[in-house]
Description:
The protein is 0% helix and 57% strand. The chain is built from no helices and 20 strands. It is an all-beta fold. It is flat and about 55 Å long. The protein has a 6-stranded mixed sheet with strand order 16-10-11-12-13-20, with no helix packed on it. Strands 1-2-3-4-5 form a 5-stranded antiparallel sheet, with no helix packed on it.
Amino acid sequence: MRGTIAHEARSHVRLYRDAAGCESIQTVNRQFRPVTITTAEGAELRVLEEQYDIRRCRDTDGVSSEAIVTAWLPDTGQARPLFRISGRAVSGTPTGNLYQMVTFGCCGSRPLATYHSLHTGAFLFSSSVPLRGIGTGATGSVRFAAFHDSFSATEPAERAADSTVIGVLQWGDDRSPGRRILIHADQPESFAATGLRFFRRGLPLEDSIAVMSASAADPVSLRIELQSSGSDRRLRLDFVVAGDSLAAEGARLPAGISLSWGREG
């Protein structure tokens, strides 16, 4: 028989001077949040313990943060948590079977969202634009598309070794990291994603994380639109969605753009 949850969370605020002498504010906010995820066996309850530690210098725009999210089963018989998620985010929220964290950068860069599995706690995607989800009627499986551009709060990890990487397209499910497709430009430059959308018969589908139907008889494509951060140069990339897979090998790419495959799983 299940018991009751017996945990406590405390929040606090602190004013202090940092090592550089800047008058700073630290806020540590903790809360519990019940969430319901969907599994093959049906709905399952999780309890999330969320902690966000944020420090700001009052004289500058600098912000440092640390986030820790701990997942528990709603049963006092479970002495250990299911998993923990950590990151440098300033805010977060559950989205279906995913947990989204948001990080802000400086110098005009755009916010970056990271997504973790509420099944396993695994990191899944990082995206500069809203995540998109699509499902197939045949299997009922859901696949997500994310795109991490090179003008976000943090650059894609692969760009450190190869400056021609302007973004990373990611395709996977809600349990484990999926395929990473690296987008390369003919010369190093930063690009910002202005659109990531599914299309059918040339018309955009709803901009939502909601599941949309795809079939061989009524195919769907995934379109990414990019703009250079230093010029008016614009790019459009079209990928074919085949069942619950992304057929990147058949992608339509503009001149000067190429693909390579990153790590998977």
